[in-house]
Design a protein that fits this description.
homodimer; alpha+beta; Rubrerythrin, domain 2; Pnp Oxidase, Chain A; 2 domains; seven-stranded antiparallel β-sheet; three-stranded antiparallel β-sheet; 12 strands
């Protein structure tokens, strides 16, 4: 069985997707199952493959199954890319994430989606707060560093320029902006927790363009 | 008092931000208060203005207040642009929105943030489902149409090409993809409700690039 990382395109073989993508480091929820097809040249492809490929560029998309349409449709949602950080009991950690968005402006509240298996999730649950470092378009190495391997056995901040914000959480130096938030509410969504955070402090550190999920995929 | 729409830059004067932006139609939560300053040429600006402007491009940003830093930092979060639709009791409505993102992949669940004052909010609460039409980069007129005025007294779909999805909700024809979802959970966040939706169906209708919030602001 093959699984493709929707962030960077890495193909993993196995019964299940990997816990984290070994290339760009995003968690297992970013893997989609790839339909296996025999290797063949363009001319020998059977009609079902040709139809599926034709459907990828046609409005009707008749060649896709309902499940494939769902995967493709949700992939058309746009995101930024962020390093979410947290600290508790003398431990710091961070992870790459794409689900971060403002929900209300009075008060300013943001929401993030974090996989329950991640060390960062554990630290947010313990401390009731989190930090967001908004990457600029030079943040590729930071995505790889903070996505790769679990922070349970590896200090992801080793050699990375970072500073503590007013909440005590480590924030990255070389990013566009940073935001610190206190958890105001949370929702169990199954594999992930959706945390609602009330923003307590922010920094504007750079003046470039934000890194988007789409830009990272194009330029990784 | 002046308020600026963070989506399109429209300036509103009044004690409060407008219910909806008259240019791009997003709701009042997208307005930020603008500090008024006397009109003057570049040379006669006082030091505080010069410092604030210098700070906009410097890492330290010492010229911004904590509140201004928060506004600027949350503006660096990237989004797509969507038309969220709903139907209940024979009524259809839709609104432009930027907060839509996937939260889990097994099952596929998405979350949206909707202002409680909006008619679409009422219809989602009544029906327990919603539709998402993911705009492509030609969707400017759809943002204006579905943002402008409340659907309580105006049929936003009049003259717009749309079709009913399997859930009975109207979805737009000329978009990149559509998604239909059943509300699995919701969170009250104050001015907005965060709806978690389990995806029940999707369509792939176009092959262009998705409209992002940043692209809309640049090209409106």
């Amino acid at each position: 069985m093959k699984w493709r990382c929707v962030v960077c395109g890495y193909i993993h073989e196995g019964d299940n997707p990997p816990e984290a993508c070994p290339v760009c480091g995003v968690d297992s929820s970013n893997f989609v199952r790839v339909e296996e097809e025999p290797k063949q040249d363009e001319n020998s492809k059977d009609d079902s493959v040709k139809n599926a490929e034709a459907a990828m560029t046609s409005p009707a998309q008749t060649g896709l199954s309902p499940e494939e349409k769902i995967v493709k449709a949700v992939q058309s949602i746009s995101y930024g890319l962020f390093i979410i950080t947290a600290a508790a009991n003398g431990k710091d950690n961070g992870q790459a994430a794409n689900t971060c968005f403002q929900i209300t402006s009075d008060p300013v509240q943001i929401a993030i989606g974090i996989n329950k298996k991640n060390f960062t999730h554990e630290l947010i649950m313990q401390s009731g707060k989190f930090g967001i470092s908004v990457l600029d378009q030079n943040g590729h190495d930071l995505v790889r560093r903070f996505g790769y391997r679990s922070g349970r056995e590896f200090d992801k901040f080793d050699g990375i320029k970072a500073h503590r914000g007013s909440s005590g959480i480590l924030l990255l130096d070389e990013v566009l902006t940073t935001v610190e938030a206190e958890v105001a509410n949370s929702m169990d969504t199954g594999t992930h927790t959706l945390f609602l955070g009330r923003v307590t402090a922010a920094e504007v550190r750079g003046s470039g363009e934000p890194m988007t999920y789409a830009y990272f995929r194009k330029t990784k």
